[in-house]
Amino acid sequence: MSSYLYRLALFAFHRRRLVLAVWLAAAIAAIAIAQLSGGKTNDNFTIPGTEAQNAANVLSAKLPAFGGGQSTIVFATTNGGAKVTDPSVKAAIQTAMATLRSVPQVSAAVDPFQGQLVSASGTVALGQVQWSAKPADVKDANLNAVKAALKPVQADGVQVEYSGSVYPGWRPPITDTPELIGLLVAFVILMITFGAFAAAGMPILGAIIGVVTTLMGITAVASVLTIASASTTVALMLGLSCGIDYGLFILSRHRSNLLNGMTPEESVPLAMGTAGSAVVFAALTVIIALSGLSVVGIPFLTIMGLAAAASVAVALLIALTLLPAMLGFAGMKVATFTRLPLLGARAERVARRSAADPDRTAGAGWARSVVRHRVPVLIGGIVLLGVLAIPATKIQLGLPSGASQATNNTQRKAYDLTTEGFGAGFNGALLIVTQNVTSPSATQQIAGALATVPDVSLVTPLAAQNGISLIRVIPKSGPNDSATTHLVQTLRNDRAAIEGQTGAHFLVGGTTASNIDISAKLSSALPTFLLVVVGLAFILLTFAFRTILVPLKSILGFLLSMAAAVGAQVAMFQWGWGEHIFGITPSQTISFLPIVMLAIIFGLSSDYEVFVVSRIKEEYTKNGDARRAVQRGTALSARVVTAAALIMFSIFVAFMFTNDPTIKAIGFSFAIGVLLDAFVVRLTLVPAVMAIVQSKLWYHPEWFARYIPDPDIEGQRLERKLPARELAAAATSAREG
Hints:
With 737 residues, the protein is of the alpha+beta class. The chain has three domains: 2-38 and 174-398 and 516-727, Multidrug efflux transporter AcrB transmembrane domain (Multidrug efflux transporter AcrB transmembrane fold); 69-164, Alpha-Beta Plaits (2-Layer Sandwich); 402-515, Alpha-Beta Plaits, CATH 3.30.70.330. 64% of the residues lie in helices and 8% in strands.
């Protein structure tokens, strides 16, 4: 592999104008196609194979007026002496709700007095709006019309709040702030690392070109496939972070070569042939982990994984082709230090000292300490991660509801007012879709049976048409309470008794039931997903390092860091330790977060594993001293892995500056996972274990060496074939050819 990468880099270096033109053309073409296709992300995702999805399909086919989005409008007079039942207030509400019936895409609007949804105190009332379109298809102009129709009610002193699957303001504004913050911090870290504008800007420029190309491609594909908005967020996170990291790793080796006296045309292909091999295997593990989300069987997670995998694949291609081309344009500038007060001077001293004597760096000091105190370091690191993992044993999975929103959010206000006026269950209604209904008495009989089920607060028949009847069931418990999950299971398990002799058959659906089904499906798919992803990555890493013990160590380290990251997330977001720090409301852990964390953190942890261990193997191949190789390999990789991890961390943390609690939880989980895995596992526990096991770690059977090709991940065969004195001749030959 190293020889192929060497030749590829030589080509890109000498044909740099062509390579740059191809990538710019690809980016421009992707932008043009995305604009012409009119593609948009769409949150109308389905969960095939679940009962709630089957219920939704029946509604769309047989009762389309109730197959779209739903809005709940909460009217409250809790801050004054008036009541919603006062004649003037009541008339204003009825007029506003009547106006809503003429809004396009609204199939029904039931005022609180028709629906008998007025609290006993007379201070809170619920209006219901049913849309004919799916939530993502409801037009903003129609949502604005809803808001305008209710302004006269607000002018009378009535508080109006919204909840449901769609309502005015439910689409959060798109902001570039997280990306800009992440890129700014990444630039600062790269300046500290390299001390040169050219070196700091190059990985960021490459990552931006890759991300633009990928996101525009995803947008174009969104014109024919349903792609959730979260898919682009995750693809953006990983495209930026991986793109910068891969460029950083190769660029770091290139600069070391330059500072040791090589010319750019000697250094670029050699850096690619050595560090580039590690980047390829690192990227492949990330791509495998993300693509593994396909085994879960949930389309929006499959698309999310494939979109993120595509962003990583593009980042890899950028690093292998565009980066060598840009290094050709830059020449010696990447090794020319920018004269900045303190920053540039310090970076220059560190870089020159590192190039002249790698054993005198801070990374070398850390590596010596870890190797010298390997046993207590190993025990201490495991204990630390174990303690952080304790909260993970109390994890509770669910999907976001109004209760998880910030207190100033209209959905949260609506949730609290509804709970105050009617009870928490009114925030999580279940929809019973009854089929084969031959008479109104069958619906009434089923509704009566449903009313006798424990934890049911209210049963209301809503509509009947085409042999289908729709019944709303209000639980006594909230949408994310375990009692509501138990109620859904009870209704499904006791289905035959509830249906009785009516000849009808019902399905339990609605948003609350759908969320419960998603959580159950994700939990059941987790073992299969873990087995597939870890198994494929194990094979890949075994092939890369030609030993079984290194992949085993990598996977065990990942499980430790993953458990600790989940524990930290549970403590901060579920237990509420981070309530005031992050401005969030404690709530259940998002049901899809653990499985997405498994995919992403496993992939990224393999990145750092490959970066560190490939350098250790390189040193071991040179001198045969296992413990010395651990110390020197860790020292040589510590600086670049530290910079890469801090860049990843900063990009993920930047997404916590959004107002969406779901994005905050995702950003925190990824950030803490990367931090723990890079610094506690890869730069501490891995060297400690390798120093203890020593050369036995590199053992492989003779048949393995005979039948499995050596990918030469450390580039040793390449360096033997092309010693420094021959590199210039090879470069000249390639240029002339």
